[in-house]
Amino acid sequence: MVAVASDDGLCLLEFAGRLRLETQTSRVRARFGLPVVRGTNRHLERLEKELRAYFGGTLRGFRVPLALKGSPFQLAVWRRLLEIPYGSVTSYDALARKLKRPGAQRAVGRANGDNPLAIVVPCHRVVGSDGALRGYGGGLWRKRRLLELESALSSSG
User: Which residues are catalytic?
Assistant: First the structure.
């Protein structure tokens, strides 16, 4: 994975093989007005520990500070994503209704796809109204694996 953090918090967490990785890093540069350089800081160190714990089955909620920047609609969607409980899923339609924007499923899907913080802002927990896996920039196989991981862990403890 590729992670970017400013002094304020985590700005980007993306799968290294994602086709839109360069687009995402360009957005970080533009939104934060900062260069993206190799290195570390306290937020990246904390993220690394939290990701290890998440994949190891001992973390159900991330606490690393987030530095999210986007349109008001994107920010509203991303805040709602943070409210989806570990081991649960919701639909694009349900998210649109919670945002008081019924019929805005596609806009919710676009904001979901623009989420700069994979896993930490759990866009993988959004599925179609029929329960089918849809639309995950990291690949549906990753979405399935993350949901399986959370489901298996939530049912065992």
Answer: 123
